[in-house]
Amino acid sequence: MRIRQELSDRLSRLSPGPQLPARDVIPIVLEAEIAGDQPPVLVHTGDQQVVPTVGHESNAVGDVAHDGAELHHAVLAVLRPAILVGDLPPGIRLIEEEVAAHLGVSRGPVREALGILRDEGLVTIAARRGAVVVGLTPQDIDDLYDLRIVLECHAIRRATANVRDADIEYLRGLDAGMVARARIETVASPDVAFHRHLILLARQERLRSAWERIAGIVGGLLSVTDGQRPDLVLHSHLIDALASGDGDTASAILHVHIRNAHRIMRGVLLSRSEAGAR
C-alpha cells in the first residue's frame, strides 16, 4: 500500500495524462532514403503531414500515430522525461495499474512503454516485482551528450557530400516549425527528426544504427531542455553551413549546439537536486 501511495503521489506531480494532439504539420522522411542516392521522400496525408517513428523509439507525444495502438508513445512522453530528471527516482516501482489510471489509458500501452524503457536501460522488469526505475546518473547523461557529439559531428561532415536541395528544404521546414512552436509547446519531436536526418545523410548504416539505439533517450532529454534553449537559431546557421558544403563549420556549430543542450540539462538536474535537498 505504501509503495502504491508513493507512486501515486509522484505521478500526481507530473504533467497531466496524454491528450492525442493535432497532427504536426511537418513532413515524413522515409527510413528507406538511407539506402540510395535519392533525396528525401516527403509523404503527405491529405493536407497534413506527420513525422514517423523509426523502430520503437518515439520521442514525444507529437510522434504518435492517431490510433489507440500508439498510445504507448504518449505514455513514454510522460514517463521517460520524469525518469531522466529524477521525478521518478531510481528504486521506485512503476505499477501498471497506477500509471494507467493516472494517464487515463489501459494497462496495455503502459506495459509496452515499460518494455521500451527496459530496452533503454531506464527500468528493470522482474517477476513479481514488476518495473523498477534504474534511471541515469549525471555521468551517464554526460556520456550520452559526448556520444551525440562523436556520432553527429562525424555524420554532418559526411553529410556535406550527400545533401541535396530537398534535404535543405526539409531541414529548413523543421527549423521554422521549431521556432514557431518554441513559445507554446515542446519542440522535441521535430528536433529529433532534424538530428535524425543529419545522421541519415551520412549514408552509413552502422552509424545510423548506433544513433537509433540512443534516439529514445535523446528525445527524452530534448523534451526536458527544449523550450528553455537560447540556441535554436543555431539550427539555421547549421543548415547554411551544410548547404554550402562546409563540413568543418557545420561540425563546429553542431558541437556548440549539443554542448548548449548539455549545459541546460545539467542546470535542470542541479536545480532538481537542490530542490530535493531542501
Helical content (DSSP H or I, runs of 4+): 55-70%
* Mean pLDDT score: 77
CATH superfamily of the largest domain: GntR ligand-binding domain-like
How many beta-strand segments? 6
Low-confidence stretches: 16-69
Any guess at the CATH architecture of the largest domain?
Up-down Bundle
State the helix count.
10
Strand-residue proportion: 5-15%
Q: Give the CATH level 1 class of the largest domain.
A: Mainly Alpha
Distance between the termini: 26 Å
Order of helices and strands: HEEEHEHHEEHHHHHH
The rough form would be described as: elongated
- How many structural domains can be distinguished in the coordinates? 2
Stated plainly, the CATH topology of the largest domain is called Four Helix Bundle (Hemerythrin (Met), subunit A)
Biggest pleated sheet: 3 strands, antiparallel
Judged by helices, strands and strand pairing, the structural class is: mainly alpha
Rg from C-alpha positions? 19 Å
Major sheet strand order: 1-2-3
